[in-house]
Specification:
Strand order of the largest sheet: 3-2-1-4-7-6-8-5
Radius of gyration: 22 Å
CATH topology of the largest domain: Spore Coat Polysaccharide Biosynthesis Protein SpsA, Chain A
Number of strands: 11
Helix content: 40-55%
Oligomer: single chain
Structural class: alpha/beta
Number of domains: 2
Shape: globular
Strand content: 5-15%
CATH class of the largest domain: Alpha Beta
Distance between the termini: 57 Å
Largest sheet: 8 strands, mixed
CATH superfamily of the largest domain: Spore Coat Polysaccharide Biosynthesis Protein SpsA, Chain A
Number of helices: 15
Order of helices and strands: HEHEHEHEEHEHEHHEHHHHHHHEEE
């Protein structure tokens, strides 16, 4: 009887997530796309402060700072400032920041040498004290924002009800390994389809910790970054919604990242995300249900979004239940010879709706060759099941102990390869050499492709 109940719960949960994925795919492919106030980009130009926290980032620090210097945004009269925070770095990060600050007056160098080193959220809160402008935009040190990224991100703040925005993250080092190629597809599905569809449907948009921003007064009102959270970005996203503000996803605001090239690095990254996300589940589940500001469907989407890192654990549970059913205790309804193998296979393998989103994003981006990698995405699924199942139990233990802790910098080491690939891409495009153009482009509402700061390319036939 218990096995039958478990099968029903698992099947119902997986079906709910499958419907959600298919709904998002349909919305992204066939529905009217919200343009995120992009008709105002370049016209509405509020004062902006950009925060870049750094800890041992000498391999990438010059690249992000140079991109921010080249940003297409007015820099006179204090309209544009960059807060580059060196948080107890043991390499040349501080020297690099100082070199840029001496050369460009809108770059402010902030150094922490004794009291720092406790992680990104604490560093962000310290940087927040040095901010003077109305809008705050954040970038991680390994990101390369397009030249028009900031003016696209700030455009939605013209609406006084918008409290936060999020742009699109795109891996720049996809050719490095199979892992980076698969993560490239995962990111494309997550942003090109998932985030845009949630914005189309007026659901919950997640701020991803970088390539996004807030109104300064909203950020201060909700208490800034929570230093006890491993997923402080997810925590902030829900706090903004629960406070009654809108969050807007800006698909054309692209920034290019260096995706992790090895499975070991991916495991560390995924573990941190999973534990942090489950922390947010414990904290925000009841407030979401009770919220007077969220619609019914926003509450449903919020609950599913908070539970997304439980799915790998549920899939692992399905494997165990499937094995028991095969070998020992088939459910009473196993006489339905089609129902039982179909149900067990569905729970064991998970639904393939996620792959539908990947395929849709590859189609939208015009990446025909990427479709051949779809079967390899199952490697990510199996890997996620193992890592997130372990992280699920770690998160429960952390919650049961109810301990307050100071985070340390649990960051991924960067090699700077993203910058090299990014430059090669730009050089190839400048020579009109499309044979080696492995990279994706995206479409705006007019069907025109944009790459690197809004440079127009040939309209797709």
């Amino acid at each position: 009887m218990l096995i039958e109940i478990a099968f029903i719960v698992l099947f119902t949960t997986m079906t709910a997530y499958a419907i959600r994925h298919y709904k998002f795919t349909w919305s992204r492919l066939y529905s009217r796309q919200k343009r995120a106030y992009q008709e105002l980009a370049g016209h509405y130009l509020p004062s902006v402060s950009i925060i870049v926290p750094m800890h041992n980032e000498e391999m990438v620090a010059p690249h992000i700072l140079q991109r921010l210097v080249e940003m297409d945004y007015p820099k006179e009269n204090g309209m544009y400032e960059v807060i580059a925070l060196n948080d107890c770095s043991e390499d040349r990060t501080g020297e690099i920041i100082d070199e840029f600050a001496e050369k460009y007056p809108f770059i402010k160098a902030v150094h922490r040498t004794e009291t720092g080193g406790h992680g990104k959220p604490e560093a962000m809160n310290v940087a927040l004290k040095f901010v003077h402008n109305e809008i705050i935009i954040t970038f991680d040190a390994d990101y390369l924002p397009s030249k028009d990224c900031v003016k696209r991100l700030v455009a939605p703040f013209y609406d006084p009800e918008v409290g936060a925005v999020m742009g699109r993250v795109v891996p720049a080092n996809s050719p490095d390994s199979l892992t980076t190629r698969l993560l490239d597809l995962e990111r494309a599905a997550g942003y090109q389809v998932d985030q845009q569809a949630r914005y189309n449907l007026d659901l919950i948009i997640l701020y991803g910790g970088t390539v996004g921003g807030f109104r300064r007064d909203v950020l201060k009102r909700i208490g800034g970054w929570d230093e006890t959270k491993l997923a402080e970005d997810t925590d902030l996203s829900f706090k903004v919604f629960l406070a009654g503000w809108k969050v807007v996803y800006v698909n054309p605001a692209e920034a290019y990242e260096e995706a992790v090239p090895t499975w070991k690095q991916r495991s560390r990254q995924l573990r941190r995300w999973a534990i942090g996300h489950i922390q947010c589940l414990f904290d925000h589940l009841i407030p979401i249900i009770k919220s007077p500001f969220l619609t019914f469907w926003q509450k449903v989407d919020g609950i599913l979004l908070l539970g997304v890192f439980l799915i790998p654990f549920l899939m692992f549970s399905g494997w165990i239940l499937g094995l028991i059913s095969y070998l020992f205790i088939p459910p009473a309804w196993s006489s339905f010879f089609i129902a039982i193998p179909a149900t067990i296979a569905y729970i064991n393998l998970g639904n393939f709706a996620m792959l539908n989103e990947v395929a849709a994003s590859a189609y939208i981006d015009g990446r025909k060759r990427a479709i051949w990698l779809l079967p390899s995405m199952l490697l990510l699924v199996v890997h996620s099941v193992w890592v997130c199942t372990v992280a699920f139990f770690e998160a429960i233990l952390l919650h049961r102990k109810q301990r307050e802790f100071k985070r340390n910098w649990d960051k991924t080491d960067r090699a700077g390869n993203g910058f090299l690939h990014y430059n090669n891409l730009r050089n190839n495009n400048n020579r009109n050499n499309h044979k080696n153009n492995w990279y994706k482009t995206q479409h705006n509402g007019n069907g025109i492709k944009y790459l690197n700061g809004g440079e127009k390319r040939e309209k797709r036939k």
